[in-house]
Each structure stands twice: as C-alpha cells, then as structure tokens.
Amino acid sequence: MSRTITQTIGEAQVSIITDGATTFTPDLFPETDAAQIGALLAEAGTDQIATNFNAVLIRMGGRTILADAGPRDLFGPSCGFLAEGLAELGVAPEDVDTLLATHLHPDHVAGMITPGGAAVFPNATLHVTEADRAFWSDDAHFQRALSGIADWAKLAQAVLAAYDDRLVMARDGSEAAPGLSFMDLPGHTPGHAGWRLESAGEMLIHAGDIVHAPALQLADPTVAISFDIDMNTARDTRRQLLEEIYADKALFTGGHFLSPAFNRLKREGIGFKLVPGV
For the domain that residue 54 is a member of, what is the CATH number? Predict the structure, then answer.
C-alpha cells in the first residue's frame, strides 16, 4: 500500500507521509460528554475516533525538508512507517537537509532519533521553537500535574541532544527555508507551531496539532483533547486558525488528518467540514 500522497504547491513538491494510524478513546476528551461524542461520530458516519500520524516532505529549490517525523516504534505495530514512506519517495535519510518540529511531542519527533538516541538524519539542521525547547528542557515542569509526561520530556531532550550542534531556534514568522515560515499556534504545547509554505503564488498551511480527531474537532472546534497542555488556549487557537483558513479558502494539512490530508474547509453548523483539495 502507498504511504504517501504528493501535491505540487507552486514550485514545491509536497508529500504527506502517513507514518501510522490509531483510534482514540472518548476519555481523551474529558470536557466533552459521551453523548456529544457519539452524536458527532454518528454525524460523521463512523463509530471510531480515528487519527493518523503524518509527516510532510517538501522538496523545493534543491532542498529536502522533513516536517515532523512520526512516533517511530513507540505506539505499536500500526505506526513507525516513516522510513518506508521516504523510500517510496526516493529519499534517503542523508538526503534530508532540514527538519522542522511543530512541537516536541513523541508522535512528532521520535522518528528523528534511533531507540539508542542517535540522529536518524545526519545532515539535517533541526528547527524548533525556542518556547518548546525551553519548556521540554526544564524537568521542573514535569512534576505534580504534568508528572505523567515526564517520559515525553526525556524523549524531547534526547532529540534536542542528538541535534545539539545543528539546532536552529524558530519564532513566529521565521523561515526554515525561503517561503517556508513558522506560525505560532499556542495551547497544545507552549511553543506549538504550524507553518506556511508560499511558492510561485500558491500556499499551503500546516495547522500543526490544532486538530487531533477530525470527526470531532472540525464539526465542533470546542472539543478539547487531554494532550493539550492549555485546553482553553488550544480551543481559541483552533477556532481562530480554522476561521482564517475558511475565510482565505486556503489549502491546508496537519499532523493528524486522515488521507488524503490536503484539504479546504466549508462551514457546516457550528464548525466545518473538510473538502478534499487534491
């Protein structure tokens, strides 16, 4: 089976790599009651809260850029297919010259290192926001309320260590390559970001992790997931960005959208519905 889909954006070739998939349980949405979740799933024509783990490969101007890298082997046999996806695209790890991390959660950066902590991409610089680097590097954050994600912090620190001499601190509007810029999207993590690709008059927005469960959070953007460190800010960010994408009729993608993962939005009820953009 193919694990990739490619679309031309101006002069860039953009490929979504599906590293894997899973389903969420309703308890991961603790501020939304089960009846509401059931109604949203029924409206979407499914009984599963499905999600994908996506990485994005961008080839433009002689550059080979990988945005996020999937969860590697951390989430069981249904994930960990980044290497297979890259091979399908004819790309070897040493060909990647730039890595982007939308944030340092394990399902986005575990694939950047081996189980032993070595860099998978030996020639790549790693762009990550300063706010996320600072948050995950400080063990004091992972006590009391956040003690349950201490292992996530250790993984984030291992990734930062593996690319220590090749780290680039990003901020809102900074470019990882010409036409490829970071967008602050706070709430999910302190330094959570998306990015915007502009090439030859065309544009693609990567919405990061503002949406984890498309069947729920597009139809009702107030639905929050427990992985959001600040649920209220994440809600505000999700609504604001979705409104902007809708108003601009923009093509967009994200870390957890299902195939084909290139989409536009149309308004429906209190939220939105995806319109495939392929």
Answer: 3.60.15.10
